[in-house]
Structures are given as C-alpha cells and as structure tokens.
Write a structure and sequence with these properties.
Elements (H helix, E strand, L loop, with lengths): L3 H22 L20 H11 L7 H23 L3 H10 L2 H35 L3 H10 L3 H17 L2 H12 L2 H16 L4 H48 L4 H6 L1 H24 L24
Helix pairs in contact: 3-4, 4-12, 5-6, 5-10, 6-7, 7-8, 8-9, 9-10
Length: about 300
C-alpha cells in the first residue's frame, strides 16, 4: 500500500505533465487546469466599476472621489441643519438620506444640459456637412471631421477621438464607430450610418438625404423647445415647493412649544413622515416631467468598437 508521500509525488508528476503538454500542444498559459478564457472573468477594479455606475446614472466623466466628497459635504451640512431644527436623530438621518442624492442629481442635470446643447447643434452640423460635401467638394470623412472641429464643446472630444482613429487607420467604418460610441446619441448614429453608406456605396442623393435628416432634426428640436417652455413654470414650482416645508418648520419653532414638540417621539415620527412625503413627491414630479428620449436604433455593441487609449 502506497504512502501519502508517494501519492503526492504521483499527483505532482501528473500535474506537471499535464501543464507541460497543454502549454506545448494547446498553447495554454498559466497554472490553470483549463485555458485562460475558460475560467471566470476577472472583475474590473473598484474604481472602474464606480465609474461605469456613474456613467449609467447619467454622470459620465465624473470622478468617484469627487462625488463621494461632495455627497459627504452635503449630507453633513443637511444633517447638522436638521439636528439644529428638529433635534433627535431620526429627522437628521431622514434629511441626510434625502440630500444624499442631490450631488448626483446635479451632475446628471449638468450632463443633460450638455447633451441638450449638443443635440440642438445637430441640424446646423448636418447642413454644414451637406454644404462641404456638395458645393465645396470635400470628401465625406474630411467634411465630417472638419465640422466636428468647429462644433459645440460637448462634441469636440468625441470628434477628436474619431479624427485620431481616421489618421491612424483611414478606415471610415472604424471612425464612425468611434464617433457614435463616444457620443452615444441617436442623431449621431443616424448621421454616421448615412455618411458611411454614402461613402462606401456612393450615389448622388447624399445632399437630399442630409437635407431631409436636417429638417427632421429641426422639427424634433422645435417640439422639444416648446415642451421645455411649457414645463418652465412647473419646474420652478417644483423647486419652490422644497422651501415651503422648511419655512413651515421654522415657523413651528416660534409657535407655543414647537421645539419641544419636535423632540417628542410623535413629533420625530411626523417629521420623518413629512420628509419622506416631500422626497416621494419630488421624485414622482421629476418622472412626470421627463421628456421622451429617442432609442439608439443603430447602436453597435461595445465589443465592435476599437479600443482607444486616453489622449495625452
């Protein structure tokens, strides 16, 4: 009967033989029993996961540390103010939870304003592309990149990445892929696909197609501006309503035993219920005010887009 040492030697020898054969015959790497792709995928670093989460939340390009620091500051100030006003620990906790989403909401609002600015510029950009490819006689790639250099600031970084790709590969399909993935905008997808088909297939109807596309984008822009104008008063009222509960709470301090009433168990519970009601109504009103967004019909999988290193 073999001893444990002999069994261990046999197992080590068999494992070594297996690793040697798979490395020479199958080109597998590492000490795994199978190929590297067969194992579980490595998880992205925490910073990358946070950055992806912020991008999905509508705040791409924002550093997680910046969001964390701003959130901590807002939560601390709000909790301190609620404690000075109501006392106890439940109202400060509820107010801090309500205020914790404020920084991310502000970042998202700033991003949406930049996207709206870029969206509003597309009819003009399409008309310029049509002019450069028609009257001026530039090629489609040159016209697209030339217009991007003079476009609005939110679009320039994406156009710069597309121009780098064009200079390296002179592949217009890869260039439009980079541009559409960087912009992540339905109008950009349609423009890129239209120009790509015209570049690869040819034809004399590009000017008519771009004119029709510019007219469609201008109509969509006009309707969205009308909707925003109609919502202006409602949006102001939504912000103003936040100040009403705070003013009522301050008035309650000077009426009878207001401060002591806030400190009782019933008072603490009612204050928390009030904060929760305001937060729920705020979120509900925000959802009602959302304008419908277009879906990306020509969106390409992220795996099809070439990987670009960050610009120095």
């Amino acid at each position: 009967m073999r001893t444990a040492g002999e069994v261990g030697i046999v197992i080590c020898g068999a494992s070594g033989t297996w690793l040697l054969w798979t490395a020479l015959a199958l080109r597998w790497e590492g000490l795994r029993p199978g190929p590297r792709g067969a194992g579980p995928r490595r998880r992205a670093p925490a910073a990358r996961r946070l950055a992806d989460a912020l991008s999905r939340a509508g705040a791409p390009g924002v550093q997680p540390a910046e969001v964390a620091a701003t959130t901590a500051l807002v939560v601390g100030v709000t909790a301190a103010g609620a404690y000075a006003l109501f006392g106890g620990f439940l109202p400060p906790l509820a107010a801090a939870a309500f205020a914790a989403g404020t920084p991310l909401a502000l970042y998202r609002s700033r991003h949406e304003r930049r996207r709206a600015e870029a969206h509003d510029a597309w009819p003009r950009l399409i008309e310029e592309i049509s002019l450069l490819t028609g009257s001026v006689g530039l090629s489609i790639p040159q016209a697209l990149l030339d217009v991007g250099r003079r476009g609005p600031e939110p679009l320039r970084q994406a156009f710069a990445a597309a121009e780098r790709e064009w200079r390296i590969t002179t592949d217009f399909a890869r260039t439009t892929t980079v541009l559409s993935e960087q912009l992540a905008d339905p109008t950009a997808d349609v423009v890129c696909e239209t120009l790509l088909v015209a570049h690869e297939v040819g034809g004399s109807d590009l000017e008519a197609r771009l004119a029709a596309l510019a007219e469609d984008r201008a109509d969509d822009l006009r309707h969205r501006k009308d909707a925003r104008a109609a919502q202006a008063g409602v949006r102001f009222a939504r912000r103003f309503v936040l100040a009403v509960p705070v003013g009522m709470a301050l008035c309650g301090l000077s009426i009878g035993t207001g401060r002591r009433a806030y400190g009782t168990a019933v008072g603490q519970i009612l204050v928390v219920l009030g904060i929760a009601t305001v937060a729920a109504c705020w979120a509900w009103a925000g959802r009602l005010l959302l304008l419908p967004s277009e879906e990306r019909v020509f969106a390409r999988p992220a795996s099809d887009a070439p990987h670009l290193e960050a610009a120095p």
